[in-house]
Amino acid sequence: MSQPTFSVVTLTPEMAADLLSRNEHNRKFSKANYGTVRRSVENGEWMLNGESIKISQNGYILDGQHRCRAVVETGISIPTLLVEGLPDESQDTMDTGKTRTLADILTIRGEVNTIGLSALIRKFLVSERYGFVAAFSSSMGSASYSLTNRECLEWLDGNPWVRDYVQPGRTVSRATSAGSSMAGFLMRTFDNIDAEDSAFFWGRVLDGVNLAEGHPIYTLRKTLRLLSENGKGERNQKYLGALIIKAWNAYRSGDEVLLLRFRVGGAKPETFPVPA
Fold first, then answer.
1. Does 114 lie in the same domain as 29?
2. CB within 8 Å of 132: residues ≥ 6 apart
3. Rounded to an integer, what distance in angstroms lies between the CA atom of residue 188 and that of residue 177?
4. pLDDT digits (tens, 9 = 90+) for 86-143
5. Alpha-carbon distance 164 to 132, whole Å?
6. What global pTM score does this model have?
7. Pairing, β 52-56 against β 78-86
8. 3-state secondary structure string across 230-252
9. Domain coverage including residue 194
10. Which of 170-174, 233-237, 247-251 has the highest mean pLDDT?
């Protein structure tokens, strides 16, 4: 049996299209994975890092279809390692390892609380790129909001303050139904509006001291507690985020609030509130 061959090639759109035309035995196409690969190619982030396009003895792509499609659709050539002549059955052993996540890379870099930090980085970056409401979407990890690890790391380098919101976000999350990354995201958002008001707001969300019935923070605490007790709190972070923002806006304007609601969907969905 002949041995596989290894070579470093420039994967051109023409070469990638030819390989894809023989793509009969590959795994199911992943929109999320493709979105990340394509952004890497478009941003000029693609590097020769040892990952290869693998071709079987019969000429089929065993691994590398997302890379090939990104090159075809962007028209951008990239360097890559090409392995040819692999046994068809070798595909059964591919992609069985764990993909290196942003949290993994942050850990290697010596960061702490890396799962929370990676989630918070993504939330801020999605908000900057796709709009404020996108940060509350349940599909933040989908192809619609693709982010590369390098984009996230570069954003962290330019925004080191994000580290300061990981632990406070976790503290709020433990006391309420809000996710830690959403809490950290809103804490920074409110700080940018009025740091003193923000400190009071989150302090009272946590301890409830000296809040009379009708105070928006009192009503928020009561609402979040009820949601947590009936198990609905973890199901819709967009809903919870809207309630927190509504309570913040009412607190800032001095309004009394006896009931907090938000219509996420239905025939007449409510417009997502903007912090003021």
1. no
2. 272, 274
3. 18
4. 887 676 566 545 567 899 889 888 999 999 999 999 999 999 999 999 999 866 555 5
5. 20
6. 0.71
7. parallel
8. CCCCCCCHHHHHHHHHHHHHHHH
9. 102-253
10. 247-251
